[in-house]
Amino acid sequence: MTPHMSGKPDDDAPYRSGELALPVARMRQAGHHAVDLVVERLQNVADEPPHAAAGPAELETLLHEPLPEQGSDLISLLERLAQDVLPLGIRFDHPRCFAFVPTTGNYPAALADLLSAAFLSVPGAWLVGSGPTRIELTTIAWLRELLGLPDGWGGLFVSGGSLANLTALAAARDHHLAGDLAGARLYCSTQAHPSIARAAHLLGLDRAQLTALEPDRAQRLDPRALTARIEADRVAGLRPFAVVATLGTTSTGAIDPLAELTAICRRHRMWLHIDGAHGAALALTSRGSHLREALGRADSLTIDPHKWLFQPYEAGCVLVRAPELLKNTFGMARHHLDAGYLHPAQAQGDEINLDDYGPQQSRGLRALKLWLSLKTFGAAAFRRAVDHGLRLADHAAARINDHPELVLVTGPGVGILTFRYRPPGTATTDPQALDRLQHTISRTVCATGQAMILTTRVQGRIVLRMCTINPATTPTDIDTALDLVLQAGRTQLPM
């Protein structure tokens, strides 16, 4: 073995010669320290502001450094990351972080990521990871049961909603268009997630082939407008092939009329994909049980466990009523060039290779997070947590309706609501001034370090938006955030 350039004995060096390894005692010491850092963060997340930021110049000074030719002490590096790097950004699990669609993660899920990384778990080919593959298949079955989907549905875990939407729409394209994109048309609302437009682009559709219709007053895809457009396109010789319905739009939490859209797609022999990245979890609860029939009649569904199922990133999932259609699109045998070395990994008998069902061959064991969380806490705890988020949104809406300076714009749907601050009296009625005021209030509230509320746009006007799905959030946290909004609005008067 080549001696260390430093001349230190192996046991004193961060890495031994010829190996990327540490002494056992040092691995245990660093591992214990890492767990202590995780537990401390989970215990104390509410003690810090919900957002911490640093400017590009500051971060460049802190983190832009030469390639390290020699190693450093691992514990010191972990401490540096935990103190100076990883906290910079939105703390999505903070009980007063109401921005975007926050996620909370959980401790068993964090341990699942550690274990799956250490065991190099790859649920791709059965030969490569039979145990990890079975874990993913079991977790998919649990998701199917949680959402009330019929037997036969299947799918796989992916990075998030964007890849889930792309995967489902790729199967829809191949099933309905058979490789010919001429005249193809895909339909959604303008309230659909941007990943739908990106998926259309990646699938070879130009912008004119994605028809984004204006929503109705409830911010939902309008079935009448959709039907009229499909029928007009058919008369024009075009080829409508799929509709994307959104279950919980990101701006307002609106739910497109799933039953009516299903009927339209059945009548026109089109694919219905439901983007339920956030809102599909509503079906876990008694309040959302009415959604189950509609979900089961769709062709495909997106759900992100790293949203309302409280998992760390990345954990998205695509589910399909006829999973063999995924294999028709992504099966390795379809795309082999000269890859004889992959032949030993082909599935035999009743084995399942999950890399035949999606775009990734090298796949992390994302499912283990949800599997270990469900095994640790039980499905009932998840149902209670989703219900809690719904009750928080109801509480926020009631508080807003009770206050003369606040106006509820869109009521609570899937743990999301929007509202505006309205100055008392006749301080201003100028729409643009009121829009600017909402932006100012958002920035002012965030600057306090006590809560994070951002803005969105509804029917052309700027509104404040809250997403209330954190199980650690209390009604008092909601009240505190709304009081901060009122204080911020009042400090801007007179206008």
Topology:
Layout: H1 24-44, E1 51-52, H2 56-63, H3 74-85, E2 89-90, H4 107-118, H5 130-147, E3 154-158, H6 161-177, E4 184-189, H7 194-202, E5 210-213, H8 223-235, E6 239-246, H9 258-267, E7 271-275, H10 292-297, E8 300-303, E9 316-320, H11 324-330, H12 332-335, H13 367-377, H14 379-402, E10 406-410, E11 416-421, H15 431-447, E12 454-458, E13 461-467, H16 475-491
Parallel strand pairs: 4-5, 4-6, 6-7, 7-8
Antiparallel strand pairs: 1-2, 3-9, 8-9, 10-11, 11-13, 12-13
Helix pairs in contact: 1-3, 4-13, 5-13, 6-7, 6-11, 14-16, 15-16
Task: Give the tags.
single chain; about 500 residues; Aspartate Aminotransferase, domain 2; 2 domains; four-stranded antiparallel beta sheet
Structure commentary:
- The strands form three sheets. A seven-stranded mixed β-sheet has the order 3-9-8-7-6-4-5, with helices on both faces. A four-stranded antiparallel β-sheet has the order 10-11-13-12, covered by helices on one side. A two-stranded antiparallel sheet has the order 1-2.
- It is globular, with a radius of gyration of 25 Å.
- It has helices at 24-44, 56-63, 74-85, 107-118, 130-147, 161-177, 194-202, 223-235, 258-267, 292-297, 324-330, 332-335, 367-377, 379-402, 431-447, 475-491; strands spanning 51-52, 89-90, 154-158, 184-189, 210-213, 239-246, 271-275, 300-303, 316-320, 406-410, 416-421, 454-458, 461-467.
- It has 495 residues and is of the alpha/beta class.
- The chain has two domains: 111-376, Type I PLP-dependent aspartate aminotransferase-like (Major domain) (Aspartate Aminotransferase, domain 2), CATH 3.40.640.10; 381-491, Aspartate Aminotransferase, domain 1.
- 43% of the residues are buried.
- The chain has 16 helices and 13 strands.
